[in-house]
Amino acid sequence: MISSLYQGGREELAQALADKARWPLLTREELQEQAKQYGIRVGRLEVSMIKRPPYSEKLAREKKLYLAFLTSALCRKALEGNLVYSGRAGHLLLPGVNNRLRVGLTAPLDIRIQRTAKSLDILPEQAESYLMQLDEDIAKWIHHIHHAPGQDPNQYDVFFNLENTTVPNAAEILHNIAQLPEYQATAASTRMLKNLYLGAEAELRLITDEKTRALDLKVQAENQVVTVTYPPHNEKISAAIPEVLADLEGCREIQCTMAETNILWVQERFSAESENFQQVVHLAQRWGAAVELMRLISPEDSVADVNDIDEQSAYTFGRRECPLEDDGGVEDDDPEAAVNDGGLGAAMEELINQGRCGGGHTVCGGYDKILERVRGDDDYALVVVGDMFLSKGQSTRTRRTRELAMSIRDRLKAPVITAEELKSRFLFGKSQALSFLGYTVILCLIYAAAFMNQDAILTFLSGPIHQHTKWLAPLVIVLFVPFIAYLYGSVTGLALKLINID
Amino acid sequence: MHPLITYIDINLYTALQVVLLGFIGGILSGFIGSGGAFFMTPGMMNLGVDGVISVASNITHKFGKAMVGSRKHAAAGNVDKKLAAYMLITAVIGIQIAVGINSHLFKGGGGGHGAGGSAGANLYISLVFATILSAVAISMLRDVLNSRGNGEEDGGPSMKIAEFFSKLNLPPVIYFNVADTKISLWVLMAGGISTGYLAGTIGVGGFIGVPAMIYVFGVPTAVATGTELFLALFMGAYGAISYAYQGFVDIRLTMLLYLGSLIGIHLGVYGVKVVNERYIRIVTSLIILLCVFSRIIAIPVYLRQLGFIQYLPQYDRYFNMGSKFFLFASGISGAMVILLKVVSAYRQRRKIQKTLLVIKKPNEPMAGMERAA
């Protein structure tokens, strides 16, 4: 997946690599052409995105359609074998597929200007201003479509500056890197590609079909199961979902959940009997939310503490083999696979019974992998980080879970909490009942005292005392008012929580 | 006590009316995303509270409420503190201008006839109120109607003004990380001063602050609302201190407003989650227009008190009654519509606990079952 700005050398490098490796080449331009033929108004979408559009359902649908088309086309090709892709932001496509080699490319500005001037037959000064504007527009496009910064080094596996490296040499290096074991297809990466392909195909069908095109959907696929969530106002047309997806190849089960919002629950192992499960489901039922389960397996478990770093892990910074049980590609009705999925399947089954299933998937890595998976689709009402780092001691587990939650919180717009905070902040238990009673009593006393001494208060606020010490009334007000607001705000919040309106 | 300040007597009946004002204002505030002052300020004036005391008590109420609300928005990542800081510095100038004008008009007197010294300030507040809110409501309605005419399915805000200002590129231009937008300092200053001035004059800074951030600065709606609330915390504190220093804050009114508003705001916010954006905009603009109409009906009373027009003083009560009727009609009908939506959504939630499971088996028709319906 080779990415660069305009005239940054990606076409040449992609072609050189494809020739050398004898792999098929797919370019952004080809996909754009196919997308246009499919009926997607790519030009209009580009203009809308560059102009910093306000959120609108129509634009969001167009964007979803475009991304689903791109994902489907790329996955289809990638499932056939090795592939070279070149585009503006190819490194951001196919999130979660671990064997893709993400290559960034830059070239000196003066060379880009020369090439642009020659290509468009314009003066170098015009070419420079054209490039500046184009770079800015591309950054906006990447930001709005992929919710990511333009050329962030953290997003690439390899980054070339073509100032000192020739294109054939860069192709040679890339060809060698691509032979490394880390970039070979595994059962896990193939399964991820299949999941992405199935999800994209399902989304394409639902967005383009007359019967379901008005639906506001969230679609994902895992292990041949397609999960669709839709809001209550789409209830009437939602009956068409199974019909539209009826003959979708590779789909063995469809789960459709009506939900006002989504809760993402990240945890290492799930159990339908656990207290966390009961609490999350209780909250989901109150909010009318679908619960999306994300099983997070942390391959960096062994580098949790500096003292733990062994000789082998000192050379490995996250890209190590995920300890996910390999099913050898056998996915259908394999009871063994169901046992080894960290309780994900059983938890999803229980969520289906509760009517709150928002799908589930497994991610291997740290917070960056969670973000990569939910990027551009982070419309969660809440993200709950549950029990993680189970192999560690209690204090390490608590600390690292809290750190993980903080890392996600800084990068996601949704509120992120740990399972420990869930009860205190969103559920009504004994401590909340005690707070409710305590605050209510204090408030009653304050209000009674205030309204039994109205004259004294008014005299204090603008009477003789005020005339002599004018700063006293503002001082008391600035301290007293937030106190009352906090107390009464807590009481009303708890009362509404008690009757399930929040 | 200040010779011109007259606090109203608060008995149980008056107290309940103020609580009701707070409750309706809270619902509208939670639903619309403004402070609800457009309803509460004239509502208190209709109960006989002087305009300046209404504004002062309401801005004090807004200060505490913003503190509670901005914490929630900050947790959701909707607050651009850098933008709020720039806006605050300029808004303070605006508030100071507003407090100065209000105070000057109040002390300048208004000709008696039961108006105390406040007729001038009341007239001024009413005129600013009617002008600004008419413009906001009409542009909001036009936006919704235009979007329907264009075949758009939802009335998202137009970005034409933001695009125009971003093209002006008047240096220095500042980048705001959370809002993800670049704004010229000069445009920012104009927006901040206007917001502060309106917050200080009629207590409805959010009505200009939020649209200014969305339409002029190009800030996303959620960030605009969160930042405005964060800003309102400091502007409210500054306004409350300024008015309290002059002895205009009636803390009893503030406390009674809280009793209603903090429940109402939760219900209003719940309503936003269950009603579509287009409906919210239509309801909002109609409520505001009715409030404006209510205030316009009260203007002849102040004009007569100031001697600009002549009629028998006993007719004042008809103007006041008409004004009160339209204000409460707008607030109560708006709140009722929102409450109905809230109740129906609450009941509907009980019914939506369902997942449709369709299992495809080879050579068999699909087997579907609905769980937990």
Description:
- The complex is a heterodimer of chains A (502) and B (373).
- Chain A contains 20 helices and 13 strands.
- In chain A, strands 2-3-1-4-5 form a five-stranded parallel sheet.
- Helices cover 52% and strands 13% of the residues of chain A.
- Residues 302-309 and 325-338 of chain A have low confidence and may be disordered.
- Chain A folds into three domains: 2-183, 3-Layer(aba) Sandwich (Rossmann fold), CATH 3.40.50.300; 259-307 and 336-426, 3-Layer(aba) Sandwich (Rossmann fold), CATH 3.40.50; 430-498.
- In chain A, helix 14 runs parallel beside helix 15.
- Chain A has helices at 10-21, 28-38, 42-50, 57-80, 109-120, 124-146, 167-178, 187-208, 235-238, 240-244, 275-287, 335-339, 344-354, 367-374, 394-411, 419-426, 430-452, 454-462, 464-468, 472-498; strands spanning 2-4, 25-27, 84-87, 103-106, 158-161, 218-222, 225-230, 253-258, 261-267, 289-297, 357-364, 382-385, 416-418.
- In chain A, 36% of the residues are buried.
- Chain A is an alpha/beta fold and 502 residues long.
- Chain A is globular and about 90 Å long.
- Chain B has helices spanning 12-32, 37-46, 51-75, 81-107, 119-149, 160-168, 185-202, 205-216, 221-245, 251-274, 277-305, 316-351, and strands at residues 173-176, 181-184, 355-359, 367-371.
- In chain B, the strands form two sheets. A two-stranded antiparallel sheet of chain B has the order 1-2. Chain B has a two-stranded antiparallel ribbon with strand order 3-4.
- In chain B, a hairpin with a 7-residue loop joins strand 3 and strand 4 (367-371).
- With 373 residues, chain B is mainly alpha-helical.
- Chain B has one domain (12-371).
- In chain B, helix 2 (37-46) packs antiparallel against helix 3 and helix 2 packs across helix 12.
- Classes of the chains: A alpha/beta (502), B mainly alpha (373).
- Strand 8 of chain A pairs antiparallel with strand 3 of chain B, so a sheet runs across the interface.
